[in-house]
Amino acid sequence: MAEGSVSLADVENSFQKFAVHGDTKATGKEMNGKNFVKLCKDCHIIDGKNVTTTDVDIVFSKVKAKSARVVTFDQFNQALMELAPKRFKGKSKEEAVQQLYGLIAEKEPANVGVTKATKASAVDRLTDTAKYTGSHKERFDETGKGKGKAGRENIPDASGYVAAYKGKGTYEDKVKEA
Questions:
Q1: What is the dihedral of CA 121, 125, 127, 133, to 10 degrees?
Q2: pLDDT one-digit tens code per residue, 67-84
Q3: How far is CA 19 from CA 39, 56, 87, 100, 138, in A?
């Protein structure tokens, strides 16, 4: 290998990371076509001009065994040998392969486009209890915490002799006056 070249171990390390990406049963020894395309996209081997996803799929199909759906690291290297001259036109095959290795070495699968839980401003506005009006604001205390059942229902006071008697606790005062 030439001076300043990338070690094959670094490339194999990236190969293993991409091989297990998204597959819980993967061992890291073999890579499927979907992960091969992902590696090519994430490592910028696919540039949209010289190398497209179609090119990558064709090369993958060419290097894998006839009935297999995965490639080993050796077959992966063969695929890179075929893609390198396409990606780096005008360079010698060795130079192109080294530059390709440079793109791949120490890379990990990017989780671009993975859904993140976000709280949109509309949700903030709708769940801000300080902005509630009417009977809805009765359901929350000053801190914005819900009161539970007490905030939803009018619970009758059944403590007096007569149901819904408004003058509770005033009898003693009336007797003393007399």
A1: 180
A2: 989 999 999 999 988 998
A3: 9, 16, 22, 18, 56
